[in-house]
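Tokens help. Consider this.
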Amino acid sequence: MNCNSAKSMLLPFLRDELSAEEVDELTRHLKDCPQCREDLEIYYIVQRGIDGLSKASLSTFDFKEQFERDLSRKTTEAHNHLSLLRTARAFFRTAVMIAVFAGMYVVYRWFF
């Protein structure tokens, strides 16, 4: 993923509008790109401010800590979702293989 693609995904990422695959791809890019990560932090701080934090709580709110927690949570959710999809795909492939072999066995028994 390049920086232009990553930057176009930052706001949808903050709004939880990306698929698990897109979140995984973006978070891998963010690990290696400090500029995109910094842009995401800025968007995050602005969004949190717009979302209604009062001025009193802004002075005591640790944006960096909350950002890291939210980023970690979203990354974990995306990895868990992808893991579940991979498990389901493997199960489906196994079931199809069993069905094919069972069909082959029935045909074999029928003709022989």
Notes: The chain has one domain: 3-111. Residues 3-111 form one domain.
